[in-house]
UniProtKB/TrEMBL annotation:
InterPro entries: BMP_lipoprotein, Peripla_BP_I, PnrA-like. GO terms for cellular component: plasma membrane. This is BMP family ABC transporter substrate-binding protein. PANTHER family: ABC TRANSPORTER GUANOSINE-BINDING PROTEIN NUPN (PTHR34296:SF2), TRANSCRIPTIONAL ACTIVATOR PROTEIN MED (PTHR34296). It is a lipid-anchor. It comes from Paenibacillus athensensis. It comes from the Bacteria. Belongs to the BMP lipoprotein family. It is found in: Cell membrane. Residues 1-26 form the signal peptide.
Length: 350
């Protein structure tokens, strides 16, 4: 089954050509605060390039086992292939966003990344105040000509893992844990539920929003509630809060072999193991970061927004899924093909 295999691990130079639409508008500035400290291991310089790229994480941090970490891994890979110097600043609170972005912009970085939808307003403010600077953001659309915005069709990838869950549940109860009830996470939820119902209309999906993306204890508590209600599979879209979902599943797996978690953003079996990770809904944040950074390297940087889904290989399952039977993978592949061709339109909101 070809979902995310080695042909999607190539450099951005080999990725598909996508058209960006330009637009701009103004916004009132907000107050700034002192920047958060840079990690001692925050810089990578492979030499050979004049590019100097900065990345600001949201409060999830660079080791969130999710999109911040994937973005940094993408920048590190770009540094190795291009010789660019790359650095990150880790935000401790949302009050750090503007000051951290300004630290890189005022410091003359060739490109400054903001990672996560929570940084949208800060990116907009800094872009409007520094019109000669180049910025980019993941998971948010910022209306400014000097900002490249990359979003994902999370609903499409979530539909696939929903189908997996619907076909593999033994209790006919399935859970979803979200970090916050906001548009990007709702796309995960709605697509997931649609996928479950497409293959198992009678299955019950139990929804729980924790209100946090960096609170593993809350994730563990949410998972406990859902498992106690009879669910055997939980899909999380909650950043490092999802670590708690895995922790709860690991404890329960000792007495119930049918307990599973579906990971998010990265192949989370690498971190948490195949014994509790059924599969993962991957967002290729790393490749998106490489792609935009490489455009800058080629003097082809453009502002605007691009949305990456199954057709663009921006979302999907990992290449290896040892816990999913072949007949289930075949069904998922059929859905993938139909969605990519537009034969199935996955809902993105209720």
């Amino acid at each position: 089954m070809k979902i995310f295999n080695k042909r999607f691990m190539v450099s951005a130079a080999a990725m598909m050509v996508l058209t960006l639409t330009l637009s701009a508008c103004g916004q009132k500035p907000a107050e700034t605060t002192a920047p958060a400290e840079t990690s001692k291991a925050a810089a990578t310089d492979a030499g050979g390039s004049k590019l100097n790229i900065g990345m600001v994480t949201d409060i999830g941090g660079v080791n969130d086992n999710s999109f911040n970490q994937s973005a940094w891994e993408g920048l590190q890979a770009f540094s190795k292939q291009s010789g660019a110097k790359v650095e990150y600043l880790q935000s401790q609170s949302d009050a750090d966003y503007v000051s951290n972005l300004n630290q890189f912009v005022k410091g003359g970085r060739s490109l400054t990344w903001g990672i996560g939808f929570m940084m949208g307003d800060a990116i907009k403010q800094v872009a409007d105040q520094n019109k000669d600077a180049k910025l980019a953001i993941i998971d948010s659309e910022v209306d400014a000509p000097n900002v490249a915005s990359v979003t994902f069709k999370e609903n499409e990838g979530s539909y696939l893992v929903g189908a997996v869950a619907g076909l593999m549940t033994k209790t006919n109860k399935i859970g979803f844990v979200g970090g916050a009830e906001i548009p990007v996470i709702k796309r995960f939820e709605v697509g997931f539920v649609a996928g479950v119902k497409a293959v198992n209309p009678d299955a019950k999906v139990i929804i729980n929003y924790t209100g946090a993306f960096n609170a593993p204890d809350q994730g563990k508590a949410a998972a406990a509630t859902i498992y106690n209600d009879g669910a055997d599979i939980i899909f999380h879209a909650a950043g490092s809060t999802g670590d708690g979902v895995f922790n709860e599943a690991k404890e329960r797996k000792k007495t119930n072999k049918d307990i599973w978690v579906i990971g998010v953003d990265k192949d989370q079996s690498v971190t948490f193991g195949n014994d509790i990770t059924l599969t993962s809904m991957m967002k290729r944040v790393d490749e998106a970061v490489i792609r935009v950074s490489d455009e800058l390297n080629k003097n082809e940087f453009k502002g605007g927004t691009v949305a990456l889904g199954l057709a663009e290989h921006g979302v999907g399952l990992p290449a290896k899924n040892p816990n999913i039977p072949d007949d289930v993978l075949k069904k998922v592949q059929e859905f993938e093909t139909k969605i990519a061709k537009g034969e199935i339109v996955v809902p993105s909101d209720k």
